[in-house]
């Protein structure tokens, strides 16, 4: 079985497939090293002149008294959770994007295609606007984290609804899911519009900022809440590679190649919904990573998901950490929403790659 | 030692002790601690909120300011201070980078996670109420003056502000009839966004002797063209730069061309008042000036 699937991948990747897999492995290695460096950069850079190295060294060697309370908070409670959260969010958005593009055989599919973004947006906006009044008792239950909780639950609820709508007789229709997703998105948009009408000035700014995304609010509770969701999914994702490779040939062919298509779809959708839901819940709307990262990598290492998925996780994490480092430095001591950076840096770069290699565009 | 010092959380003292340990080679830790204790008040103050910054300046304590937020644009020299961003989108590290030992923040600051992290550093954090009333101004001046360890200056400023407001309001005794006023917050895409009840804009209009024509809702909301005509304001108040045609000859061209606003007595009689937003809506130490200017614009010909 595995031989025939490998052959499929090889065939699709073209005659230089042998070279490509070697190349892909090298790229993954380079990305892994780059991610390490970026993570160090992320820990070391910030608006304060706190030195990450000296603080970590002092704490590790037990010289706690050399570290002030502020320095300790800056490194341990501000930068560390932020770096970890950025890595997890970037990786999960990119891997989710690649998975959805493969599953739906649609280059425009992003993680939001399973309804997560619309649902999460609705959940977040509902609590931003009503959390202080009508929904105050519910908000109090989750404390300062009521908006992330609402976003996560909203995302899952929408995915569940979308899946049920597009599944009949035990078969999920991709086309129905795309169209129903647009309808659900419009409904969410209408409700959000209504809430915007009720919102006061400050709430309006809150939801604008939420939509632009940020990891500035990273805290340990957030890291600990999303890690048990995102990390297992990232670890499991590469095992989906063969199935995704088969799906690119069409559902019928994949079925013939021994993939249980319906189960596979369900697993993929649940994984993407959970990973994206968790990411969006803690960071707001960070667009673009889920589309740009997978395509950039397809253009360089090819469409074989065995390499594509791990590479996406690495490059997604790098891109987000890098964007966040820019976001926190460029207008310091203030800070830009990260969504602005990912789009302004990512979009022109993506266009440039696209123009250079447009002949090779493939899914 | 004043009350301010006693109210400081233990974490802060602990930090001073830790810092003291650093300079142990140069001087004895106890001496350092005592030196600091003599000063009692914060030396590096971060002001978050336009009115908060104005109050610190009005108290004459601006030399202790090390930063401000993006809404603090008065007095003009305040803009030279490092800007830690928008009050609802504070970045914990950005705030700490100005090394504050006291943070005076207007209420409704955020995001809550960032504020919680900041509070955990032991840097003193004081919320200043977001109260658009005359009593609120006094209260806020008292809180800030106490935090800065200058309660006498606070009392003096409270008296001065109260006197300014009383003087401005005294002129209103002679008016015969309160004019109907609409505060237009924004005129985006020709849609009128007006101030309702319980807003800084609505309150300042009432204080200056105007009647806010919008009584149906609280906050700022977009209203329909028919509602604008129905409300028939005699005066329209806007912030500088809003709904301005950009043409010095006829800055109100946009309002005159607007299907609904052009029908109102205010536009037909050219009674459009534009004032600085922070002066008008800040509810800070300049509130007396704001009331006076607005009242003069409303009733200048009557008193």
TrEMBL record, chain A:
It is found in: Cell membrane. It comes from the Bacteria. Its main location: membrane. SUPFAM superfamilies: ABC transporter involved in vitamin B12 uptake, BtuC. The keyword Glycoprotein does not apply. Belongs to the binding-protein-dependent transport system permease family. FecCD subfamily. This is Iron complex transport system permease protein. It comes from Hoeflea halophila.
Automatic annotation (TrEMBL), chain B:
It holds the Pfam family Peripla_BP_2. It comes from the Bacteria. The keyword Signal applies. Keywords: Signal. Residues 44-302 form the Fe/B12 periplasmic-binding domain. Residues 1-37 form the signal peptide. PANTHER family: HEMIN-BINDING PERIPLASMIC PROTEIN HMUT, VITAMIN B12-BINDING PROTEIN. This is Iron complex transport system substrate-binding protein.
